[in-house]
Amino acid sequence: xxxxxxMGNPNVGKSAIFSRLTGARVVISNYxxxxxxxxxxxxxxxxxxxxxxxxxxxxxxxxxxxxxxxxVEMLKGGDTVINVVDATNLERNLYLTLQLLEREIPIVVxxxxxxxxxxxxxxxxxxxxxxxxGVPVVPTCGLTGEGIxxxxxxxxxxxxxxxxxxxxxxxxxxxxxxxxxxxxxxxRHHSFLDNLEDFSIKPLTGIPLSFGVIYVTFxxxxxxxxxxxxxxxxxxxxxxWLPLMNKxxxxxxxxxxxxxxxIGNLVEGKISFGSSLGVLTTALYVPLAMVLPYILxxxxxxxxxxxxxxxxxxxVLVDNLMHRIGLHGYAIVSFILGLGCNVxxxxxxxxxxxxxxxxxxxxLMAIAVPCMAQIAMIIGLxxxxxxxxxxxxxxxxxxxxxxxxxxxxKFLKGTSPELLLEIPPYRIPQTKAVVxxxxxxxxIFIHEAVPLVLLGIFFINLLYAFKIIEFLAKLFSPxxxxxxxxxxxxxxxxxxxxxxxxxxxxxxxxxxxxTKELVIxxxxxxxxxxxxxxxxxxxxxxxxxxxxxxxxxxxxxxxxLGTILNFFLPN
Length: 571
Prior knowledge:
Elements: E1 3-8, H1 14-22, E2 39-45, E3 48-54, H2 66-75, E4 80-86, H3 90-102, E5 107-112, H4 114-119, E6 122-124, H5 126-133, E7 137-139, H6 148-154, H7 168-182, E8 183-185, H8 192-201, H9 203-252, H10 257-262, H11 282-308, H12 311-317, H13 319-324, H14 331-340, H15 342-347, H16 355-368, H17 372-382, H18 387-411, H19 431-465, H20 468-475, H21 477-483, H22 491-496, H23 501-506, H24 515-527, H25 532-542, H26 544-568
Parallel strand pairs: 1-3, 1-4, 4-5, 5-7
Antiparallel strand pairs: 2-3, 6-8
Helix pairs in contact: 3-7, 9-11, 11-17, 11-19, 16-18, 16-25, 16-26, 18-24, 24-26, 25-26
């Protein structure tokens, strides 16, 4: 099967074009680096089926990051290239186009974001551009589908022009000639979004605005999540699922193995969705009724900010702070994605340039950035003892991020590179795109998290049945009781934390911990080890050697932090 490669600069809408061509579901956002791995699908042109591959964005065919290396390597196996170009930033995009034209591979140019050129006073002579490049040029809009049909129909007209440049200077001079010949920019007044772009990037106004954005975002997440739990998810479980489980509990009879696995232990003669630890009770209630509302609210807000184009501006604003902990501002994208789920956060470290920077970002994210599922459980469990204890846990994690970053920056050889980041214009998010992206992320959560939670609860019931938990509790009691000041029974939560940290926090509920014990246990669970899915992504991105080093740092940090909290927190 012949391969069509989608290639272009980051954030030019390749993923949107790919989704239109193949019907595949991919995450599309208004910031560079959304595609850190390649994605492939199929497309029919006439009677022939093509494999379409969405390559990671690159500015040049001389790669400077892992994602760009992948893109360049993939070019060797392509039969045709659709070069996706941002029509609102033609001059910068044409450099890569000219490099592609020098390769002996048929090319079609998709002049994407065509609708935006009208808003920005940009006029492009398509016929003249096509003539100067020597390949078909098709105006498109990936988000609305404008021009996609024509693009497909012209793939068969892809050509190999004869371009050769002896230097970068000659290439840039050619870009200049093309721009002066095909593009005309007319004056227009600043719009509200233009003024907001300026307002949100200048430190004097942008930093206070960023605090406001973060505060409002988390306020809305909490408001939406608690409303969904109170008025939708909890009533569904209490009114429809609980009566079924009560009947099953009576049928199975409390005390036998099957009842323990499926229903769990009764609390004062009743099923407790939060504490019974049954596969059909707690294992379904925790991910679906306690965690899913927070995941849904978080990804809805994240999708809006992504498509609006705010995240790159936040990266620029925090750049100075991030340099102090050995990173540059773009690492904030990895941390923000990690707040939703640590797996995409770990994948996003691929956008960072050096091994040192990737190691610091991955280690800090695994230690100090809990995923939204875990945050939901901490708020739900610790919040009952008082909001100040929730604030205390997240303040500790933030301090840990800063202190660990300062230490790693000081002792690891090398320096953090400067931030070279394209700032996209603000765009009003399209409802269809935001809803589609939200659904894809929710589907991934349900598809991947729920089976792991079911497995974790089943696994822990087996350990209880064979008294392995009892053995491990005795073995680790000097650490748990002596250093951390928590009951030895918390070992079961630590074990499940390897699979799912949110469930591990939930398993602290039936242990009747004091507030101090609960704060220590929740904090240690956040710090001590990433969940199994994140761990394997880190192995792939960092290599086994650096992952083991990062793991050692996490374990030693948890050991030290638990001991310090036990010493300083009042009983």
